[in-house]
Amino acid sequence: MIAPDLVAQHQQELRRGTTSLACLALLTQQSDYGYNLLSRLADVGLATEANTLYPLLRRLDKQGLLTFEWDTSDTRPRKVYSTSSEGIELLTLLRSDWNRLTDALNHMETP
Fold first, then answer.
1. Residue 60, Cβ neighbours under 10 Å: how many?
2. In this predicted model, what pLDDT tens digit does every residue of 73-110 receive, in sequence order?
3. What is the pLDDT of residues 43-79, one digit of tens each?
4. Topology (CATH) of 20-106
5. Burial code of 80-108, b = ≥16 C-beta within 10 A, e = fewer?
């Protein structure tokens, strides 16, 4: 039996890259702020903690893959993120890699 902590560690590694890819994809479809993006990720089966998402959004923004505007319509200003043109380009490349890797894994025989 595999130790649960080992499984959790590997699941976390898989989820890291997947969450970046999912954020780029979701923010291409519709601009959004972090809190709502957490719900959208959960809705597609990628539940993410806020303490994981917000640093990820800052990193993607710093890399030029996201842009944001301030929404000041509420009492508390919020950043509304969208995927930049560079982010869309990266998303296209990563999706292609993802599909190639998935195909390769699906064609491997397992015991």
1. 21
2. 988 999 999 999 999 999 999 999 999 999 999 999 77
3. 999 999 999 999 999 999 999 999 999 999 988 999 9
4. Arc Repressor Mutant, subunit A (1.10.10)
5. bbbbbeebbebbeeeeeeeeeeeeeeeee
Q: What is the pTM (predicted TM-score) of this model?
A: 0.87
Distance CA 12, CA 43 (A): 19
* Domain locations along the chain: 20-106
Report the alpha-carbon distance of residue 67 to residue 34 in Å, rounded. 13
- Is pLDDT of 36 > 80? yes
The three state secondary structure string of the chain is CCCHHHHHHHHHHHHHHHHHHHHHHHHHHCCECHHHHHHHHHHCCCCCCHHHHHHHHHHHHHCCCEEEEEECCCCCCEEEEEECHHHHHHHHHHHHHHHHHHHHHHCCCCC
